[in-house]
């Protein structure tokens, strides 16, 4: 069954919820019913090229990347207050003359079953929407793309698309999740939605050949961005 109120989740559930995701993803696009926003940067010039946006952070993720910069959101999201939608909408309405839209990141936003409804409410405010994802929920991506709820999708490619490399970069042993990543790459490229793929380059995890291999695997993509690794506050 879906979790309607994941606050507070037990430590046991936090340890094993990604396994639940992997098991039930054939039936559900997301595994937590109600989306939570645990952080907000009111004004960002960095998260969407050429746009001024408010960046919203969701909790939870089914990866455990050792270089993750938002470990608190993934491992202990209960430490952060949930931001009511009214606070978000009031800010966007009051600043709509110069805020272009939002960037929804995490965590993993596609983790939440009501993501389309949340995005629709943002869209009804006249905002453009950029969605960040790790690509493990292709059904959810298909839903929001088909409904025209995203203007831009940015998908992280953690490593070359083979099991050993992805396990090393994400600490998750799941061939099924890797297949979902591949499915999302193909979906995004063929969707017609504006998009980019990106890799955080970690010297201890990625070689030059790894990056070249990723570039070959997503060769049809319009944009592939490399991000610098920072070793502060990681997992």
List the helices and strands and how they pair.
Layout: H1 11-24, E1 39-44, E2 53-57, H2 71-75, H3 85-94, E3 101-105, H4 115-123, E4 128-133, H5 138-146, E5 152-156, H6 163-170, H7 175-191, E6 194-201, H8 208-217, E7 224-228
Which class do the helix and strand fractions yield? alpha/beta
Biggest β-sheet strands, sense, barrel: 7 strands, mixed
N-C termini distance: 29 Å
**Shape call:** globular
Count of DSSP-assigned helices? 8
Low-pLDDT parts are: 1-15, 20-30
CATH architecture classification: Alpha-Beta Barrel
Average pLDDT rating: 87
Structure description:
- The chain is of the alpha/beta class and 235 residues long.
- The chain has a single domain (11-228), classed as Aldolase class I (TIM Barrel), CATH 3.20.20.
- It has eight helices and seven strands; from the N terminus they run αββααβαβαβααβαβ.
- Strands 1-2-3-4-5-6-7 form a seven-stranded mixed sheet, covered by helices on one side.
- Strand 6, helix 8 and strand 7 form a beta-alpha-beta unit.
- Helix 5 runs parallel beside helix 7 (175-191).
- The model is unreliable at 1-15 and 20-30 (pLDDT under 50).
